[in-house]
Amino acid sequence: MKKTVFALAALSLALPATSFAQDNNGRYGLPPGAHDEIAWDFVEGITTEIGPRLAGTVDEARAREWTMEWLRNHGFANVMNEPFPIQTWVRGEEQARIIAPFPQPVVVTALGYSGATSAQGIRAEIVHFATTDELRAAPEGSLAGKIAYIGHAMRATQDGSHYGYFGSARRQGPGIAAQKGAAGIIIRSIGTDDDRLPHTGATNWPEGVTPIPAAALSNPDADNLERMLARGETVAMELVLTPRHLGETMSGNVTAEIVGSDASLPPVLLACHLDSWDIGTGAIDDGAGCAIAATAALRVAEEGQPLRTIRVLFAGAEETGLWGSRAYSAAHADEPMGVGFESDFGAGLIWRLETNFSRTNPALFSRLAQAVAGYGVLPAPQIVASGGADLNILRDQQAPIVDLQQDGSRYFDLHHTANDTLDKVDPTELAQNVAVWTAVAGVLANEPGDIRGADIIVEE
Amino acid sequence: MKKTVFALAALSLALPATSFAQDNNGRYGLPPGAHDEIAWDFVEGITTEIGPRLAGTVDEARAREWTMEWLRNHGFANVMNEPFPIQTWVRGEEQARIIAPFPQPVVVTALGYSGATSAQGIRAEIVHFATTDELRAAPEGSLAGKIAYIGHAMRATQDGSHYGYFGSARRQGPGIAAQKGAAGIIIRSIGTDDDRLPHTGATNWPEGVTPIPAAALSNPDADNLERMLARGETVAMELVLTPRHLGETMSGNVTAEIVGSDASLPPVLLACHLDSWDIGTGAIDDGAGCAIAATAALRVAEEGQPLRTIRVLFAGAEETGLWGSRAYSAAHADEPMGVGFESDFGAGLIWRLETNFSRTNPALFSRLAQAVAGYGVLPAPQIVASGGADLNILRDQQAPIVDLQQDGSRYFDLHHTANDTLDKVDPTELAQNVAVWTAVAGVLANEPGDIRGADIIVEE
Lengths: 460, 460
Ligand SMILES: [Zn+2]
Ligand SMILES: [Zn+2]
Ligand SMILES: [Zn+2]
Ligand SMILES: [Zn+2]
Hints:
The first copy, chain A, has 14 helices and 16 strands. By secondary structure, chain A is α/β, with parallel strands linked by helices. One zinc ion is lined by residues 285, 319, 416 of chain B.
């Protein structure tokens, strides 16, 4: 991190207030050009000084060390790493070429836990499926020696809701293709951009299924492939993917605290994940989220010691299967959490407040809604928040959860690609995230009562 | 090409008129959603069925065969290839990594005619120059064993005028660095995007200078490198570039004609280049340009046989040094040209008409201005057109030249990158180009008099 980090932290006190006592100045509560120096310092630092930090690798370990130093430098207490083992997969060569009828190279990237080809690759006919369901309906054995291709194209949505449905091509598609005997599978990138930058991401192999080579094709290449397929001739591809399994290596969850004044109250957990895919630098996924979570904790502390402890959880090994989230929940099963929320959707403006306690604690929900009203945030009491990938511990404990929904309209242009770099983080939007988180965390960390509320039926 | 090409050509006659007798319907002379099926068929076909077509390679030869078949299928006469030899360079491996103080991979691509490293690459300290002039001012020998880096960042402009000035980093920078003893050179991509897709392009080695490894860094990587350099520590890079020289191979200029009724009149030459860089598919550079030139000739012919012959020139080996343009001028030095214009700047809307004969033939300039007035085109009689890269023959003959200036605001986002793909061509903007070219070519091909006009001084 920069040598000037203390000076920046001190300076930030003189900046536009991002405290939970918002002043409603400016549009959406922030003046034009608002900037949060601390949050920026984190995301600028980790992308510049660490960059890619794939789960279970030395890069992720360097990121943990870097982050723990940053947290200590910024005054966090109880900075620690809780290690856990994972099965680690690393990328190798990745090359693909249409070899017939129209030879030309195409751009692919291996999906996480993809099987490998030989160094010479495979050469096989491509069989086109419009959707994952179409692949599922293919006759058994019909794919023997062939490469399945799923072309289903996701759309950009503000809430990112298309990702779950369309993402089945990546998560389930390879397992289905393997079960039907395919030699490999190529999917259209789960992404909304038109760049020659394919989107990686983990795939799930069902129990007992041997992984096959599985890769994402960039959207322009998928368009091109589909134009070739539409001409009606047999299209064949050469595919080289040489990822490797490193076996068991260590990842870790980094945590740190702003210690509250009342140790009897369960903590407020602010979560993100520290690992990133190897092909980008983890700026929007999820450097920004960690910057938001950590800075919000510091901004609450600036207003005075909170009642409850605020703990930040920088989970390890999220991308390759939520290893850190599960490990953390298991290790802390006997430690009740007061409430948790997570940032893992870039740095777009927060536009909606959701909780899982609006019915059981409407008064608290109302106070949260008021705290963020000036930031352009819609209270959505009818939506039941379920939290993000790193909040297993909250779900396992059936504990209170808040979702501060970010605008993800452009998130899937960049998600899991080489294009996930610092220039994609808008400083003013990052500052709005910190301000909203600070407002919400400030209310919750100073809440003396049970956040879940009385278990009473509330008339609507 | 598609098997349906004849059907499309026939169908196109029923589409909105794009003839030189424009009807001024709709905004800018075209109805919303206007589409030119012939032009689209060319650019769709060559990107899908050929793709990259690097000068002097078998891919460029395949592109010539494909194009000649397309031209014959569309009714052109005298379809031919005029071969010429070039010195051919092909890309190899390209990998780069910051190795100190913050190890992480960065994305580079070799510049055309770059020297090679060994397969193991070079490891060297980076010396930062803000501009090419700064590099020029570096003391002799000061770069021995080091990698020069030029960070000068070009801006997007509508007329593309920044390219010439900022492009010196690519064209001259490597030669200067080599003369000062550098082990290699890295430049910020000559481009206006924020994608991890570096921009290639040819570099010029001065006589007697031994080429050194020379690569472009993507803009986000250049930003990252500069953040590292700004921290004040020595930054070192590992660079692997293994391009090769194939020696002399053959390229060729493809030409074809719409034969005019008066063989005594010098022809109208419509030019573009057929080769492309190897990392993209040559959609905007210059598949679109060839589509526009060829289709305009056909659209003029649809109105009846023109007076002058219209010849299309699909030049070979433009990207690697204007080999085709020079060869064509030399081979046809004794054949006077009537007028020439070229399309080699994407498919953005044409917004300005320029010629080099507005003073000597103001009446003809005025008729051209009227012919395109409805298409949202500004007549610029004060600008002296000098033509594009493939118009050497016009410049060498001091012949009439027209420039139909396209909007290039976003051209340098894509130029010479992997992102140069079909999805970047807007069909309606392509149709506007064809319409404007048809209007201008129609007037000129039916002009019985000398296009240059009487050599008289015109009062302004
Ligand atoms: Zn994430
Ligand atoms: Zn992710
Ligand atoms: Zn060009
Ligand atoms: Zn070019």
